[in-house]
Write a structure and sequence with these properties.
Its EC number is 2.3.2.10. Pfam families: FemAB (PF02388). Belongs to the FemABX family. There is one protein chain. This protein has helices at about 10-20, 35, 85-100, 130-140, 175-185, 200-215, 220-230, 245-265, 270-295, 335-350, 365-370, 395-410; strands spanning about 5, 40-50, 55-65, 70-75, 80, 105-110, 115-120, 145, 160-165, 190-195, 235-240, 305-315, 315-325, 355-360, 375-380, 385-390. With about 400 residues, the chain is α+β, with helices and mostly antiparallel strands. It folds into 3 domains: about 5-160 and about 380-410, Gcn5-related N-acetyltransferase (GNAT) (Aminopeptidase, 3-Layer(aba) Sandwich); about 165-240 and about 305-350, Aminopeptidase, CATH 3.40.630; about 245-295. The strands form 2 sheets. Strands 1, 2, 3, 4, 5, 6, 8 and 16 form an 8-stranded mixed β-sheet that branches. Strands 7-15-9-14-13-12-11-10 form an 8-stranded mixed β-sheet, with helices on both faces. α8 runs antiparallel to α9. The longest helix has 28 residues, at about 270-295.
Length: about 400
């Protein structure tokens, strides 16, 4: 153990340089994530080997608890070779020493270790053989596993993630029905734009609509602005936009022209007549759809935002963190088109994958089915661990934490 040196206050350049180039690179272990979690204290920990080379890092968030107690949390961390038992034992022995100084009850972690990867259409439970060895090492450092949980709500971070990995031509590999849905968006002239903080008002409005519809609490504009300001050019908002006024009046013009074509159609051209009548019925259906929407929007000739995504690139990863949609435009299929543009943005910037976020391990919920439209890979992570620091208080603290987590999701 004397071959390593532990530090607890690394500089950003060295810290991020290590994390961004590591196989376990994750936004939640970025240096700036501590600025986002501003209601927590933090440590930037690191381990150097005997040659002076940095071999491990960990952003440690510190939550203040009642009675001057604390909890340490390493979201998707630490970042190191988890199969290096000596390194793991050294790091957590040193971290526990600091934890005791902070009156820490427990250290929580949920490292980004994959124990299984498969296409969502090829569900299996054949975890990698290395899983057992990982579990042995975590046991050596005194970690208590929460189990191979199934549902998002059971742990701080989802254990199943839906990921789209780099493809040279992502659109060519989409399922047929997804291509059809994108054509639906094109037919309604849905346009995708991307930018920065100037889109925050529209994006926040769309997220609020999603909150109301799904009866969930996500985040507000101040939080989204904090993300954009903290990650700068690596943060992006995609908006899907459309102009209902333009669609409605073009449909009226098309209706008028079709009615004229039908009136002028020769009596013996029955096949052409049926085609024109089909087109007219389709156009009338669109008019019926667009008219009440336009009246509700104030009959204005302007583009409006109907769906949005906020994403952040960190290293060679892209996290699609938040999304919202105006449900009135569900038939416009805007999210399908904007997700594809988000993937392209990430891959053009050198990302190896775009993380669409957590799904239930059953893979049968609505969120999973939506994400399946993009032919994702499901990453099953090893799960959540606690390392009790104060063994006397740990059982009560664990119950209190779970109760707090449950109430925050109501």
């Amino acid at each position: 153990m004397g071959n390593y040196r532990f530090v607890k206050d690394m500089n950003q350049e060295e810290y991020d340089g290590f994390v961004k180039n590591h196989q376990y690179c994750n936004l939640l272990q970025s240096y700036n994530w501590a600025k986002v979690k501003k209601n927590w204290d933090h440590l930037y920990t690191g381990v150097y080997n005997s040659s002076g080379r940095l071999v491990g890092t960990g952003l440690v968030l510190i939550k203040q608890l009642p009675m001057h107690l604390t909890m340490f949390y390493l979201p998707r961390g630490p970042i190191m070779d988890y199969l290096n038992e000596d390194l793991m034992v050294f790091y957590f022995n040193e971290l526990k020493k600091i934890a005791k100084q902070h009156h820490c009850v427990m250290i929580k972690l949920d490292p980004a270790i994959h124990v299984n990867d498969y296409k969502s259409s090829e569900y299996n439970e054949n975890r990698y053989p290395s899983t057992e060895r990982y579990m042995e090492i975590f046991k050596k450092i005194g970690a208590v596993h929460y189990g191979f949980t199934t549902y998002i709500e059971e742990t701080a971070q989802a254990r199943y993630i839906s990921n789209v990995y780099y493809q040279e031509d992502i659109e060519a590999n989409l399922p047929k029905h997804t291509k059809r849905l994108i054509k639906d968006a094109d037919r309604r002239n849905v346009q995708i734009v991307h930018g920065g903080p100037e889109f925050l008002d529209d994006f926040s409005r769309l997220v609020a609509m999603t909150e109301d519809r799904k009866h969930v609490a996500l985040r507000d504009e101040d939080y989204f602005r904090l993300l954009m300001d903290t990650y700068g050019d690596d943060a992006v908002i995609f908006l899907a936009k459309c102009n209902v006024y333009d669609l409605y009046h073009k449909a009226l013009d098309r209706q008028q022209q079709l009615e004229k074509d039908i009136a002028d159609n020769p009596a013996n051209a029955k096949k052409k007549l049926r085609r024109l009548q089909d087109q007219l019925r389709s156009t009338e259906k669109e008019i019926k759809e667009f008219k009440p929407m336009l009246e509700e929007l104030g009959n204005e000739n302007k583009e409006i935002a109907i769906a949005g995504i906020l994403s952040i690139q960190y290293g060679n990863t892209c996290e699609m963190l938040y999304a919202g949609m105006d449900q009135r435009f569900k038939k416009f299929m805007p999210q399908y088109k904007e997700y594809i543009e988000n993937f392209k943005w990430a891959f053009d910037r050198g990302c190896k994958y775009a993380d669409m976020g957590g799904v239930e391990g059953t893979l049968d919920d609505g969120l999973t089915k939506f994400k399946d439209n993009f032919n994702p890979t499901i990453n099953e992570f090893i799960g959540e661990f606690d390392i009790p620091v104060n063994k006397l208080l740990y059982p009560a603290a664990k119950k209190a934490y779970q109760k707090m987590k449950a109430s925050s999701k109501k």
